[in-house]
Amino acid sequence: MWKDFGVTEEFRSAFQRVLDTAAAQAPDFPEAVHDVFRLSTQVPHEELGHAMEALAPVLSDCEQAAGIAADLSVLAGALVENGAPAGQVGLEVLRQLGSYGQAAVAFMHAWDKTGGGRLPEPGEVSGTQEKRVEEVLGENAPLATIGWWTSLRYGLAAKAMLSDTGVRAAVRADAGALEGLTQIVHALSIRLHEFVELGELLRMAEVEYLLVLDRASWRGFRVRVDGLGDNFQLHTLLADALVGKEGRRLPGTRPDPRWAAACLDGTADPLADVVTGEWDLVGGNGEWVGNDAVPADIPVVDGERVLVLEPQSLSHSWRAGRRHPRIPGSLEVVDELTADEATAWWSRMHPAGSVRHPQAPGIEREEDGDPHPPLHFGVAAHFAEADSGPISTQFAALPPELTDPPADPDAFGPGPFGAHTEPAEPEELDDDPPLPEPVPAPAARSATEPEPAPEPAARNVPEPEPEPQDAPGAPLLPPLPKGVADSWSWAPSWRWPQPPGR
After folding, report:
1. Virtual CA dihedral for 99, 102, 107, 111, nearest 10 degrees?
2. Strand locations in 174-217, DSSP E?
3. Cis bond leading into 472, ω under 30°?
4. CA-based max dimension of the chain
């Protein structure tokens, strides 16, 4: 129970000042924003939800005042990280990111066309840089410069919004808008690493249902997934949902419950943080998928994303946990295919054994002579790198003519709805670390048939550069770009592209 009613009243008063000063573009707007930041961690989530509802129309009305709109977006992202539902504000932030993000991409394009070199930091752009890109953009140069100036703040706020399952569902429902925003984010991620994770969250939003076929049993299941950052997480939760009597009675070894908990909403248990793989993950089109990929990389076959669970051709293991720790994962078995449905699907699949792990040894035949032993045994096998399947496919960059008017920014208009942290990089095993606590062993084999110990899969993800710790968006209120505009809010009366509904 929240005992300090005075803090709640102080928060309400501060938030009302934010709304009033934003609408009036008053100079005490930054002070009001800072007061709300300070108090937002001390009030109930319900109070934060009420604040987000009141913020939605004001954020839309302030879009022309770019500095104010970007700061309101950052404030909204902070409220979501503190427990508020994103709601309609989340969609409005993504819509404005689409508009100003397109302008930022135009700035990058014009910068390259006028000599290239190191781009100015978004918060340090000035009238000098605006004059430079004017050679290419003409009268659109001011808005392109504004788009670059606000890009980081919108990007950080959008990451917080996409941590909300309702926002991801609403984005997924509009495939055209999702594709357009994904292209803009991909283009910005080339120069601003903060947009890399945002691109990953948009890919997370692409997938809701999977058709999973198990080779060993010839059974099939439809599953609903959400919040899965990679196929390591998907693999672990599929094993938990399908294997053994606690699942759907597929053959195999039940995963440690602590592995599944770390992939849902828990933290990894240091005494059980090495997950042992159960299958090879292969697409329904006969191509390798693997654990390094993401659910959105699973190919679509006849209108459904189809994943085939093949017997392992190479043992592999990885660290338990979630790529995006602030986002809980979920996997639910919706139904099982009938025998006739499963038979129909299997008739379209690749032959058994035709797709193997890229690092698996070749299949020896009798005429080839004595088979060669595996490369590693025992401890060496446990720490050998494995399961380096293809990484997520990168989206193509935007078309060269980036100065054309962008796609319809209305794409993220009103719709249904159900922070800032860098993704937790999977920890690679050192060459000679202490052995982890024992994990459940796979099914016993003949004493004369040695089995290589599982090998941890190194996820080939580059280490991100350190970011400021104040999330999302620090510093909250960047200084005004010198020489760009006289108004402290930097809010031009013209805009390109035109905002929706104006």
Report:
1. 180
2. 209-214
3. yes
4. 84
Query: Which of the residue ranges 224-238, 310-324, 471-485 would you say has the lowest mean pLDDT?
Result: 471-485
| The two three-digit tokens of residue 325, written as one number | 């720790």
What amino acid is encoded at 470 in this protein?
D
Positive/negative CA dihedral, 488, 420, 329, 232: positive
pTM > 0.85 = no
Distance from C-alpha of 87 to C-alpha of 166, rounded to nearest angstrom: 7
372 in the Ramachandran plot: left (φ > 0), alpha (ψ -120 to 50) or beta? Answer: beta
The stretches of 249-346 forming alpha helices (DSSP H) are: 257-264, 339-346
DSSP 8-state secondary structure symbol assigned to residue 432? S
Q: Do residues 431 and 291 touch, judged by C-beta distance below 8 A?
A: no
pLDDT band at 159 (very low <50, low <70, confident <90, very high): very high
Q: How many angstroms separate the CA atoms of 141 and 134, rounded?
A: 5
8 Å CB contact between 211 and 284: yes
Residue 248 corresponds to which tokens in the numbers above? 């759907």
3-state secondary structure of 318: strand
pLDDT band at 364 (very low <50, low <70, confident <90, very high): low
Tokens representing 188?
Answer: 């910005």
Handedness of CA 43, 46, 49, 53 (dihedral sign): negative
pLDDT per position as a tens digit, 271-299: 998 999 999 999 999 999 999 999 999 99
Is residue 183 within 8 Å of residue 202, measured between CB atoms?
no
Which letter, b or e, does each residue of 218-228 get, where b requires 16 or more Cβ atoms within 10 Å of its Cβ? ebbbbbebbbb
Scanning the structure block, which residue is given the tokens 């039940």?
Answer: 254
Which residues pair with residue 331 across a beta bridge? Answer: 225
Cross-strand partners of 456: 317
Give residue for tokens 């693999």.
Answer: 235
Cα distance between residue 168 and residue 368, in whole Å = 53
369-427 residue pLDDT tens: 444 444 433 333 333 333 433 333 343 444 444 444 444 444 444 443 334 444 444 44
Instruction: Provide the 3-class DSSP secondary structure of residue 300.
Output: strand
Q: Are 417 and 90 in contact (CB under 8 A)?
A: yes
How many CA atoms does the CB half-sphere of 421 hold within 13 Å? 14
Mean pLDDT computed over 196-212: 97
Q: What is the bridge-based pairing of β-strands 300-301 and 304-311?
A: antiparallel
Q: Phi and psi dihedrals of 322, rounded to 5?
A: -120, 140
Contact 454, 315 (CB under 8 A): yes
